[in-house]
Amino acid sequence: MSGSEANVTDRPVAAALEMCARMQTLAAEGDWEGVETTVVRLRAAIGGIPEAERRSVALAAERAIRRVAREAEARHRMLTDRLSALRRGRAAVAAYQFR
Q: What's the CA gap between 89 and 69, in Å, rounded?
C-alpha cells in the first residue's frame, strides 16, 4: 500500500477519533446539544471505516461515550445538589418568617 492509500484509509479513522475527543471536550464545556450532534456524526463515521479497523475505533468511541456519561452524571448530581440547597434555603427562610 502506498503512502497516499494509507492516508485515505486513515482519514475516516482519524476523523472518528477526533470526534471522540471533541465529544469529550463538549461535555466538559457543558454543550450537550453539541455532544448529541457529535454522537450522530460519529456513528455515521464509524460506518464508513473499513471493517478491519472498525472495532478499535468503536471501542475508542465507547470509552469516550462512557467518559461523557460520567461527566453528565457528575453535572446532574451537582445540579441536583444545588437545587436541594436552594430548596432547603427557601424552607429555612419561610420557617424563620413565621417566628
A: 30
**Sequence-distant (≥ 6) Cβ neighbours of residue 75 within 8 angstroms:** 30
Contact (Cβ atoms closer than 8 angstroms) between residue 8 and residue 50: no
Q: How far apart are CA 99 and CA 94, in angstroms?
A: 9
CA angle 73, 68, 83 (to 5 degrees): 25
Contacts of 21 (CB under 8 A, 6+ apart): 64
> Each residue of 56-66: pLDDT tens digit?
999 999 999 99
What DSSP string runs through 45-96?
HHHTS-HHHHHHHHHHHHHHHHHHHHHHHHHHHHHHHHHHHHHHHHHHHHHH
Q: Is 12 helix (H, G, I), strand (E, B) or coil?
A: helix
pTM, whole model, 2 decimals? Answer: 0.69
